[in-house]
Amino acid sequence: MTRQQKPPRVVAELGRPETPEETAARKAEDSRNYRMRKTVSNLVYALLATLAIVLIIVLIVPRSNTSLLKNVDFHSAAEDAQASRDEVIIDPQLPDGWTSNKAKLSSVRTPQISLWYIGLLTPDEQFIGIKQGFDANATWQSQQLEGALADTTVTIEGITWTVYDNRDGSGPSDPGNIEYALATESGSSTILIYGTAKTDDIRTVAEAIAEQVKANALK
Q: Where are the residues of the annotated region Disordered (predicted)?
């Protein structure tokens, strides 16, 4: 018995059977739509996988913040620095909760300025830097304070400090770490205290080094 051929499918929208050309076009369109859906699905899966990897990295990599910075024994570093300098090396005795992330004596040849530096972190993790420049000049001081303009003066424990207050908008547009600074000269030393900390904290440092600043004046 001869097998009957299946009649062409009647398309409701056309009200008649598809032509071979229309059938081929429909199948091509269906195939294209399938590939597009597949591509979108793959992109979504790839994005989700990427987000999962980023989340894992965020969870396992330590955060870079001030609480993770190493605590430097700046008293020991100051003792070592004192062995190579005639000037009294600044070495503040500060309340509990203060830490240091750097302490270094930079010795260079003239005309460069040698200096002693301490980087401090207050209990609320704000920065204060101390720089003691040896045989420094006005140009060096201006460079260290990044061109900040003198604001007024203040006397702390009998020592007169020049105040550079960049928090009032009178200094550089981007003061960086030098939001507030104090500067004084003592003997052959130019001493700078600066940072992002509260004025009271910077004043605490000035009080802590007062006797050493006075001692340098006698050198």
A: 1-32
- 100 and 202 in a single domain? The answer is yes
| Cβ-contact 141, 183 below 8 angstroms | yes
Per-residue pLDDT tens digits for 88-132: 999 999 999 999 999 999 988 878 899 999 999 999 999 999 999
Q: Read off the tokens for 201.
A: 């904290």
pTM score: 0.68
Query: How far apart are the C-alpha atoms of 160 and 210, rounded to whole Å?
Result: 10
**Cβ within 8 Å of residue 104, ≥6 positions away:** 77, 116, 117
Is residue 4 included in any domain, yes or no? Answer: no
- CA 212 to chain centroid, in Å, comes to 31
CATH code of the domain containing 141:
3.40.1000
Number of structural domains (the chain) is 2
Contact 84, 105 (CB under 8 A): yes
Q: Which residues pair with 131 in a beta bridge?
A: 117, 192
